[in-house]
Design brief:
It comes from Sphingobium indicum F2. The protein has 456 residues and is mostly beta strands. The chain contains 3 helices and 24 strands.
């Protein structure tokens, strides 16, 4: 059993969470001699995947359970839902690189993709009749309000209770999403010196649309989001210094998103506020990164990295609440999310590590440590100070360490390791589950032993 809320109450306990992915992928490539000054690659790709998910949840102690128990006159505390999806991707692509001189290289690429998705979603009673009874009552109320005719009989156990608002009937959601896209890339590499490379790239890519796999009272929650696109501008350098003892890499980037896919609230006229996937019309990410690696003395390597990110919504009129209209249905209240931070985008991320290897008695003694940190972020799109405080994902600094021995030729190694060795409490996500705001705790201190052997 999994708890998604971290309390002793049964607010949303996952009693069953089974799933599988069966995937087949094949790619064919044709390329010329990689030593040529003009290099090319052409190819085609095919992918076919089947996804299955089966879940059972218990929410006996949630507020909605108490309210709905009064409606149907019996306990309302559990439900099942499943999702079946098929994904097919077809793609053809080509890439070229041309060395204009020993210092200057131009490169480009293009990829055409067709993505086909189908989804079958179902939410159903697990056998006690409570879900069937509740949704029969709810759907008959809906049918009366919108003049769909007389009442329907009790939804049979095991049948989907999700409401199709177009027909006024419960049913299994079935839909398809077919999209195509053309991705491309242009870039230039310039070897200013034998130890300094400068580069600049611009590219456009896509993330395919998708269907959510959720427990839903209405078909609106099953609706797909369309593909998101990204135009990526980046420039940077790679260099080695002090007889290649020091490596220094740096870059700046700007991501221009359209229709970015995010989890957010939707408002159904009958069911009110619900979770769903949405497309944010415009957003952007800009930032910079720097990496340094240095062999300080024989056997000792020190590495450091830092990334700065400024990720914000440029345009999105999202849901901030709802209001009942004159006929008792719900209308959305929208707010301007322009300038809101994108979820899970800490402004600062950094790491510092040191590794030392010492020959000792025919083996190499190795030891090392890594310190990683990131600043705070948000688990949801938020524009009010109250929501920003409520859904904050705290910043943290974690320390790991390792100690072991390995063969001089690297054929075998044995080492012990520890992660988050100071047992820092932190959380990785913050969401709302029914009437509870949940923080997903990060992993505590962990220790282990790894044995590695290379067969020849």
């Amino acid at each position: 059993m999994q708890q998604s809320h971290g309390t002793y109450l049964q607010i949303l306990d996952v009693n069953r969470n089974d799933g599988s992915i069966k995937s087949f992928n094949q790619e064919l490539r044709l390329a010329n001699d990689a030593r040529s000054s003009f290099r090319w690659v052409v190819g085609a790709n095919y992918e076919h995947s089947r996804v299955r998910e089966d879940d059972e949840v218990n929410y006996a102690d949630s507020t909605s359970s108490y309210v709905n128990t009064q409606v149907i006159g019996q306990d309302y505390d559990q439900a099942g839902y499943n999702n079946r999806q098929r994904l097919k991707n077809y793609a053809v692509f080509g890439n070229v690189e041309y060395d204009i001189s020993d210092q200057l290289t131009l490169k480009g690429g293009i990829r055409y993709t067709e993505a086909k998705r189908s989804s079958v979603n179902k939410t159903f009673d697990l056998g006690d009749g409570s879900i069937s009874s509740l949704f029969t009552t709810v759907i008959n109320t809906y049918r009366q309000i919108f003049d769909f005719g007389g009442p329907i009989p009790l939804v049979p156990l095991g049948d989907s209770v999700s409401l199709n608002s177009q027909t006024g009937l419960p049913g299994t959601f079935r839909d398809k999403l077919n999209e195509n896209s053309t991705s491309w890339m242009l870039g230039v590499n310039y070897k200013a010196t034998p130890t300094l490379l400068l580069y600049a790239n611009v590219s456009k890519g896509y993330k395919a649309g998708s269907f959510p796999g959720v427990s839903a009272g209405t078909f609106a929650q099953y609706a797909a989001v369309t593909q998101e696109s990204l135009v990526d501008y980046e420039a940077g350098f790679k260099t080695t210094l002090f007889d290649r003892k020091v490596t220094l890499n740096g870059g700046v980037f700007y991501y221009d998103y359209k229709n970015k896919q995010l989890r957010a609230k939707i408002v159904d006229p009958f069911f009110n506020a619900l979770d769903g996937l949405v497309n944010v019309p415009k957003s952007r990410v800009k930032g910079a990164e720097l990496e340094l690696s240095a062999r300080v003395v024989e056997g000792l390597t020190v590495s450091a990295a830092a990334t700065y990110i400024d990720a914000k919504v440029r345009h999105y009129q999202g849901i901030v609440g709802s209001v009942a209209n004159e006929v008792g249905l719900f209308d959305p209240i929208r707010g301007d999310f322009s300038g809101a931070r994108l979820p899970f985008s800490p402004k600062w991320q950094s790491s510092l590590s040191a590794d030392y290897s010492l020959p000792l008695g025919g083996v190499n003694l190795t030891m090392g440590t890594t310190i990683s940190s990131q600043s705070k972020s948000l688990g949801v799109l938020a524009i009010t100070n109250a929501d920003k405080d409520l859904y904050e994902v705290n910043g943290r600094t974690l320390v790991s360490a390792r100690l072991g021995v390995e063969a001089p030729d690297g054929r075998w190694a044995v080492f012990g390791w520890g992660r988050n060795i100071f047992n820092k409490y932190y959380w990785t996500n913050t969401i709302q589950t029914y009437d509870t705001v949940v923080r997903y705790a990060g992993r505590p201190a962990e220790y282990g032993l790894t044995v590695r052997f290379k067969f020849q």
